[in-house]
Amino acid sequence: MKKIGDMMKNNALKMTTLCMLTIGVSQFATAETTRPILPLLKAQQLPAWCNANLKKIQKEISNFEKTPVKDNAAAAPILAKWDKVFAHFEDFSGPISLYSNVDPDAKLRKAAEDCEIKINQFHTDIFQNSKLYNVIKNTKATDPIDQKYRQDILDQFEDTGVQLEPVKRARMKAILDELTKLEQEYARNVRDNPEKLEFTPEEMKGLPQSYISALKKNAKGNYLLGFEYPEYRPFMELADNDDARKRYQIAFTRRGTEQNLKLLKQVIDLRYELAQLFGKASYADWVLKDRMAKTPEAVNQFLAEVQKTVAPLERKEVEELREFKAQTLKTPLEKTEITRWSEAYWSEKLRKSKYQIDQEKLRDYFPTLAAQKWLFAISSDLYGIDFKPVKVKAWQDEVEYYDVVDKKTGKLLGGLYMDKFPREGKYGHAAVWGVYGGSTLTNRLPVSALVTNFNRKGLNSDELETFVHEFGHALHGILSNTRYTSQSGTSVERDFVEAPSQMYEEWARRKETLSKVADYCDPACPRVDDELIARLKAVHNYGRGLRYARQTLYAQYDMSLHTADALKVKPLENWQKMEAATALGYVPTTEFPGQFGHLMGGYQAGYYGYMWSEVLALDMLSAYGDNLNNPQVGQRYRQTILSQGSQKPAAELVKDFLGRDPDNKAFFNEITGQRVK
Can you list the domains of the chain with their CATH numbers? Predict the structure, then answer.
């Protein structure tokens, strides 16, 4: 699924910048005004580096603990000191979080994961320290930004159990440690699965030569396919052999192995126990209090409303596919069925037939390099920024680095890393790591790392949307202009974090923006015209029911695991029951929950946030009217939303931008196909 894997940093572990850091160089450069680049690490050096950094931070924490604070002391200098400590923390924890997912060296990824466990343990120790809590508690803030930051810090202490009695506090720490290890193991089982499926040349019929020629063969002359998206998705859409697709689809859902189902259950039980320590009925109750939604009831009501709207649309679309298949194959309608593994194939066939859209041929319109240059150009015009390539040594030779500079002032705003192509052992979806946050207090610059797994030659329309979506996250980080590091970029509420990137997807759909891709093609490529836009729009509208029904199912499933009855929950049985109730039903032996990374990657009791964010995204989009290229609106958006990070609650940010309270009208128009533009 597109939009899977937008891994954002956990607010609890917001990570930050270091200038020109290499092993052995002083870690704590102050007032960074030069280029912020990431340290390069070697597997054998990493454990010592990790320990040395933790030791230094511990020293800073101990110094902070001794800060003499009278009751109602001015908050600003204390908060500034606290934020500086966490900026130093981020100097090394940020790269560690990234490298554990993308470094080509499996030994380094493992060493980074081991360091992550220590980081999380250290982090828990900090936020269970009542002396530190009291230093912050004794301050008084009058400035609104300071007031919110102070409250955010106190909330974090309280959410980590600082006010619990000692036995419960110790149990909280043990649970958090265990959760980190289980979540890592789950992700590793998916990411590092070496399994290859074998397909005969006969089973490859329907796939383009460009796809086939890039594959490895075994001694028997059969093709070997793994679980990376550039291999899996085209196969499911284009391979004519129904049995082959079924085999691949089942294997894909089982790529986390049965072990992951056990890990998921362990995690659900631990999350429930954690909520109990705080006297909350469920994990969802505990976690949602800090989100826009506030309560599980609000989330479930929202999801029920969406489901009521999209379930009939899903049934209608499946029926349309069934009729199309029967017509194509000249089979009796009553004997024709659409299955989970054939839906993408027949959808692609219908799109080609009805709308003359061939996703593979769209790659000619959107060559990968041209798409990137175009994305830079539209972002540059909209937000008044430039992207300047710089040769910087990164974790892999193909990774690119760009200075992001303000056009007006020439000021360096931050850094962007781009790791675009698939390789073994790399995080398998599309994601952005906000590695470093920025701070105006210390001239600290933000860094975002955009990670995708694209086809080298070109992108189809879905992949182009994904590119723009992820770029929206990256810009949210880089264009942040917050006082404190910890409030930078994507540190906003989890159910708002997707809104800026979802809104940006629209730039990958409209004529006034898409027609410009051809300006950046070398050699020349066809230009998107009115006719193609109309067809792309029809295609986008076509799969709405299936798309939103699936997102609703994921979100409802996630909520079903984190209820007051969590201990009785059997994750696979829950999934079988819920998926069976959808139009395409459940496929026996599939194990989707064992590879649903969001549940272990920060979106637990939070997957609804994708659609909740989309409500806000589509509402904010209305400000652009008929012209997405309007730099006046772009600048206002940059100032009121992107630059603010979490200095204000998300609802206020949206209100500041729109000049009114947000509403869900645009979202329901979108999912029912009533949207005008």
Answer: 11-190 (1.20.1050.40), 194-253 (no CATH)
Q: What is the pTM for the complete model shown?
A: 0.88
Rounded Cα distance, 284 and 566, in Å: 10
Nearest to 435 by CA among 452, 418, 423: 418
Q: Is the link from the previous residue into 523 a cis peptide, with omega within 30 of 0?
A: yes
- Residues 95, 51: Cα–Cα separation, whole Å: 15
Report pLDDT for 68: 85
pLDDT at position 677 is 61
296/288 Cα distance (integer angstroms): 7
Q: Is 424 left (phi over 0), alpha (psi -120 to 50) or beta?
A: beta
Give me the helices (H) in 239-342, please: 242-253, 257-277, 283-288, 296-329
> Which residues have CB under 8 Å from 388's CB, separation 6+?
402, 403, 404, 405
Looking at residue 601, its pLDDT comes to: 86
Q: Tally DSSP H helices, then E strands, for the chain.
A: 24, 10
User: What's the Cα-to-Cα distance from 19 to each of 46, 57, 391, rounded to whole Å?
Assistant: 18, 17, 15
Residue ranges, the chain, pLDDT below 70 = 1-33, 676-677
Calculate the alpha carbon distances from 224 to 227, 231, 238, 251, 427 in Å. 10, 10, 17, 13, 20
Q: Is residue 122 a contact partner of residue 57, using CB atoms and an 8 Å limit? A: yes
Residue 3 CA to residue 545 CA, distance in Å, equals 17
pLDDT tens column, 328-352: 999 999 999 999 999 999 999 998 9
Q: Quick check: 501 and 6 in contact, CB under 8 A?
A: yes
Q: How many whole angstroms from its chain centre is CA 82?
A: 28
Contact 222, 201 (CB under 8 A): yes
Q: For residue 438, what are its two tokens? A: 């920025």
